[in-house]
Amino acid sequence: MFEILFLAHLPPRPLQNAGFPGQIVSHNEYRFLVDCGGYTKADPAIGIGFKRLTRILLTHGHLDHILGLGGLLSTFLRWEAIEELEIYGGHSTLERVRTLLFDVVLRGNQPPMPLVLKEIKPGVIFDAEDFTVTAFSVTHREPGLPWLYFRREIAASLPFSKSG
Q1: Do β-strands 55-57 and 30-34 pair in parallel, antiparallel, or remain unpaired?
Q2: Chain centroid to CA 157
Q3: If you count Cβ atoms within 10 Å of the first and of the last residue's Cβ in the chain, which end, N or C, has fewer?
Q4: Are the C-beta atoms of residues 90 and 120 closer than 8 Å to each other?
Q5: Dihedral of the CA atoms 80, 148, 128, 57 (nearest 10)?
Q6: For 57-90, how does the pLDDT look when each residue is reduced to its tens digit (9 = 90+)?
Q7: At 72, which helix (H) or strand (E)?
Q8: What share of the chain is helix, strand, coil (3-state, %, to 5)?
Q9: Residue 98 domain-assigned (yes or no)
């Protein structure tokens, strides 16, 4: 089963009808952050932290989907001990992320963990034993932006019982 947690969204200033995307999708030991807009925060009251978070999937490079990465990386610099961080996104998305993280947040310093920017194209981008993550292109103000689809394979045989 996949669990989806919609994170608290705290914009840097109040905006009418603002929605800054950020969800954690969990399945067994896997945890993905899908988009990281605004000041995306985990809610300690429900026991979700970012310690097991090693993959961030960005649907596209609009600022309301990536700006929270700066605060998240700053948090990792100070508090969270993670072994590596992979950020998945399209080419133009990763260019914006590279500038945000390496030029603005880190200012030429090295991140505290291996930080890998992985360009995605349509097709399977993550393949686990019992599920896949697939990217496909859609048009959202710009053509060809990657979007994501989580799929879990379910065994075809189901238990049946005959009633007497």
Answers
A1: parallel
A2: 33
A3: C
A4: yes
A5: -20
A6: 998 888 888 988 988 888 777 776 688 899 999 8
A7: helix 68-78
A8: 20, 35, 45
A9: yes
Structure tokens at 43: 């809610």
Q: Residue 94 is part of which domain span?
A: 3-120
Kindly state whether residue 157 falls inside one of the protein's structural domains.
no
Q: Indicate the number of domains in the chain.
A: 1
Which CATH number covers residue 93?
3.60.15.10
H or E element, residue 75: helix 68-78
Pick from 29, 25, 32, 35: nearest CA to 5: 25
Catalytic amino acids?
64
Residue 74 is given by DSSP the state: H
C-alpha distances out from residue 45 to 25, 41, 88, 144, Å: 18, 12, 28, 39
The whole-model pTM stands at 0.78
Based on the number of CB atoms within 10 Å of its own CB, is 144 exposed (0-12), middle (13-18) or buried (19 or more)? middle
Question: At 29, is the pLDDT very low, low, confident or very high (cuts 50, 70, 90)?
Answer: confident
